[in-house]
């Protein structure tokens, strides 16, 4: 509301006042930043009727106006009463409406049937039925009006207390549920629109009557067939095309005071930042002008709300990249919508909006009552112009300038064109020390004089691979010993793993029982060499001596990953079993023998409970290529072909096997 008021060219001597009803506790919890936006009159809460105990939030509307006029004497002659879910599009001047004392401009609400039935006679029987249709049917005792009220200050002073009184009366009327026309009230309930009847009956009692103005206020859902609206009321669900809809009731938990960062991923569940962005005006179809104009007004509604949010955030939130990027897009949409609407209204506005325009022109009203005729009989009075006379300038230029300034503050120093130095290679010497501006001495240095360089020794930047050391000076003596070699952590870890694996392999090469193997593996993990008990070693030696002739031409082999990989032959294995030391293992690495890998640690865990005490299973000697080695040499395609051959062969054998099983035997019964 405040954002649109500033941009709708309202009279210069006018001012906007918010009237807020709240309890003392609600006032303490209220955000003080929102009070600073606009002049605010804080009134007590009227939501609970102290006489009847009825809680009805709409009591606050007549109560707020009554309390404001009771404590404040506004200097303006004419008052415009609006709801908070509205925004202004065009200025309100009394001469546009031919406004006079005792008459009020308002929107038509024809569903208020209670002004012309038993409800009116129950509450204002003393009011004579009306004999006009300016704001309802013949015979009514009150006017069917609501939404906004544009009336004289003195008239509102008389209406306000009666507005509150009759609201309470209709609310407590036991028959009002069936007489008001409220389609949501149940039998015996209290109508929600009681406040609207309270105003209609109170105005009638104060002898203030109304004239319908069907074009001033518009809902985004309605087709603007009566003219160009000055006021938009977004109190109902509306849609733009087939893929966008909006209802203010979906956003009760929306908090406009929350600063970035905002979570805007889910448009349907936003609780801060901005409302879901409507489609661009350029995407609308123009085949139906009224429908096109209606959608433009709906887009303008969302664009105005989001622009107002950004106006608040720019003034109350610290600079942030998200704030700049989001609000730039918001202002872009807002200005684009206004451009499209200005173009549409320039052509739509050149027509007559009253059936008596021609008659009034003949009587000279185009010159006698120029403002009113320009507003309602533009075509007849030849007031059409390409540049619409009353279209307000609502650009966001000043806000975009604030965004640009904010963006510049967020821009890194290295990317700031105003402070970025010339591009080039990094200096070899350290840059001069930067002294904060407030600590610098008051000295004027010309731009073309470079500051003196400081001789500061700096260490070279770290490199991935250290360069060779430079030769020492001639005068310096040579070093006593070469510098120690740099051992990386990776090399130490690899050698440690290699040693552990070698010790574990040794455990399985020895002819030990399962318990001894477990002890040996445990010692190997700790990096210790396992000492074989004398008895076990003697038995193992005897067995190996007996098996030595048989294994003369066989191979026993192992592989160690990483550095220090070793291989050995079967003959060396016998000697190694007799003297298991690191020297023998190192010498064995000179012989090239094919090896088979196995998971050494898992081997000790595969022994069953019933095999405790038995010797571990050792691979049998292999003569010639093994199946494992042959399969290991196959690449992916060869393995796939082999697999397909096996599957095809299996499928070919299945019918034959099934046929053999179905073969009829003698004596078998067949069907």
Task: Write a structural description.
Residues 546-560 have a biased composition (Basic and acidic residues). Residues 350-384 form the ShKT domain. This protein is an alpha/beta fold. It contains 23 helices and 11 strands. The chain folds into 3 domains: 2-213, no CATH class; 231-349 and 384-403, no CATH class; 491-621, no CATH class. Helix 10 (289-316) runs antiparallel to helix 11 (321-348).
- Summarize the amount of helix as a percent range: 25-40%
Low-confidence stretches: 419-492, 547-623
What percentage of the residues does DSSP assign to strands (E)?
5-15%
Spatial order of the strands forming the largest sheet: 3-6-5-7
The beta-strand count equals: 11
Number of helices: 23
Shape field: elongated
For the record, give the distance between the C-alpha atoms at the N and C termini, rounded to a whole number.
92 Å
Major sheet attributes: 4 strands, mixed
Please, what is the average pLDDT? Answer: 76
Structural class: alpha/beta
CA radius of gyration is 47 Å
Provide the number of structural domains.
3
